[in-house]
UniProtKB/TrEMBL annotation:
Annotated protein name in UniProt: Dynein heavy chain
Chain ranges of the Dynein heavy chain linker domain: 1-75
GO cellular component: dynein complex
One Gene Ontology term of the molecular function aspect: dynein intermediate chain binding
Pfam families: AAA_6 (PF12774), DHC_N2 (PF08393)
GO BP term (any one): microtubule-based movement
InterPro entries for the chain: AAA_6, DHC, Dynein_heavy_linker, Dynein_linker_3, P-loop_NTPase
Gene3D superfamilies: 1.20.58.1120, Dynein heavy chain, N-terminal domain 2, P-loop containing nucleotide triphosphate hydrolases
Dynein heavy chain hydrolytic ATP-binding dynein motor region domain: residues covered: 226-266
Amino acid sequence: TRDPRAVQPHLSKCFEGICRLKFTGELKNLSITHFYSSEGEEVKFQSPITPSGDTEAWMNRIQDNMKSSLRTETRMSLEEYRAIVPNADYSTKAKDERIGREKWLLSWPAQVILTIDQVIWAQEVTQALNDCASSARQSVKRYSEELLTRINRTVDLIRSGVSKRERSLLTAILTIDVHAQAVVYNGLYCDAAVTSPSDFPWMSQLRYYWEDDGINVKQVNACLPYAWEYLGVGSRLVITPLTDRCYMTLTSALHLHLGGSPQGPA
């Protein structure tokens, strides 16, 4: 097509999370600067894209720029979080740090926040387990209590009159954090045999790690690179023990270059 803007109705067929693009300039001098989810979330491309030449070529540039933009946003968000909550002793987080975390939750794209939340969880659980020997396992209990505090603060934030999009994000965060707290208390603290990050109850969890300027998702023997496809502000499934087993089956299958086809009401 002579007008690149005509691609807008077909975007969701190529990128499920992208509803539309932001074009600036006149027809002969167009550039693409932002992309939007169906919920209205706006994400800025790392660098403007010129929609010239073959449609396939500049659509590929959109895909590459989408991934690099999300990676950059995630790195910057993680750096900001670590600046807001610099104290590694999760049991003594100051009130202003907790308020800072709540502000941080609403300052970045939903996918970035959900991903970093899981990166931080894996990091803090690993630290708590490493501290088990010196604290007689109290480090894990303290961290479980800290997660409960975060959950309660998130509930308060949802009730404070946030927008529909922010409510969707916070509900997803709440779903993840409730599962995270259950894993820490029921799976790690109540099981006296778990004293190290290398113990199976922890290794069997789906864990996110920021490594080599990217994210690796690990579970048991599987280590899969995060793909950086934009997902928008979607809802989350409630995570049950069956969900955990499903994750383990699928990650193990991918690790062995196989696949899976989940189906059924669960």
